[in-house]
Each structure stands twice: as C-alpha cells, then as structure tokens.
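Batch manifest, entry 17 of 40.
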Amino acid sequence: MASDDDSELIAVMRALREQVVGVTDVAVATRDGLLIAADSDEEVDLDRLAALAAATLGLASGGGAAVDRGVPGQATLEYSSGYLAVRPVGSTALMVVLGDRGMDLAGFRAHAQAAVESLGTLLAAEKAHAHTDI
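Output type: structure tokens
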C-alpha cells in the first residue's frame, strides 16, 4: 500500500487515529482523487475512498462559493454506521477520515488541523525533493 517514502505521512495519519477515539481509517489523496498514502486496518477500497473524498470536497467547495460562504475547512458526512470527514491539505491534496459511530467529533476537530499542517509540510517537502531529483 505505502512505500518507504510514505512512512512519515503514515506516522502522521496513525497519530491521528491514536489521538481520536473512533477514527478507523485515514488517507491522503490529491484533489483530483488519486491516493497518495493511507493508514487503514479495515477492508476499505482506498482508491474509491480517495475519489469519493475528492468529489465530496469539490461539492463542498462549489456549495460554499454558490452561497458566498468561502472555502470549506471540513466536510463531514454522518452515516448510519459512522462518519466520513474531508479536509483540504494545502491547495493540491486532501485528508479523508473514516470513523465509527463512536468517533469523537470534538476530538477530531481539535487534532485534525495539526495533522493537516504536518501532512502539508511533508507533501511540500516531497514535491521539492522530487523537483531537485529531475
């Protein structure tokens, strides 16, 4: 699933899972829905999750613009058996989180921004490193 280069990304995602009760899966994807890395114990189709997260964030962004509310900080969907939350990571990526019915939403909000900032820093460093390798 993840390469050795993704270990720092995985560490950030795993920390979020450990800090927030009920978080079962965390993934990072591009804004157009391509999976970058994930930390997941469940049998989730991670490529489908990445695509769904991109569509969710796109819909939230369009909705915010249509009603003059700005850009979304987070889109959260509540389902009969849990939650899906999507947060932008910079301008080119996103973080998607799945949680069970017992997910601590307040705890998630408290810890998610730090995770997003760490992921953004790591992705920017990877991008800069990739440009120097060319």
